Amino acid sequence: MSPQEQAEQRRGQRLLFVTLLFGVLLNFPLLAVFNHNGRVGGIPVLYLYVLLTWLALVLLTTRLVQKSS
């Protein structure tokens, strides 16, 4: 297996890990932890958690894809 093929395989494994990680982070048990009446800067905690988790997913995925190109 060539070094480029190995790098592609590692990238695929990392992207799969990111997918599974964020699948867990955006699943019911953790969402229930943040589902209360609290607010941060006027934004409900649950909305802020989902937004920041989504932003982290986008940034991490972008970094993984651009790093290997």
From TrEMBL:
The chain crosses the membrane at residues 15-34, 46-65. The keyword Transmembrane applies. Keywords: Membrane, Transmembrane, Transmembrane helix. This is DUF3311 domain-containing protein. The lineage of its organism: Bacteria, Pseudomonadati, Bacteroidota, Cytophagia, Cytophagales.
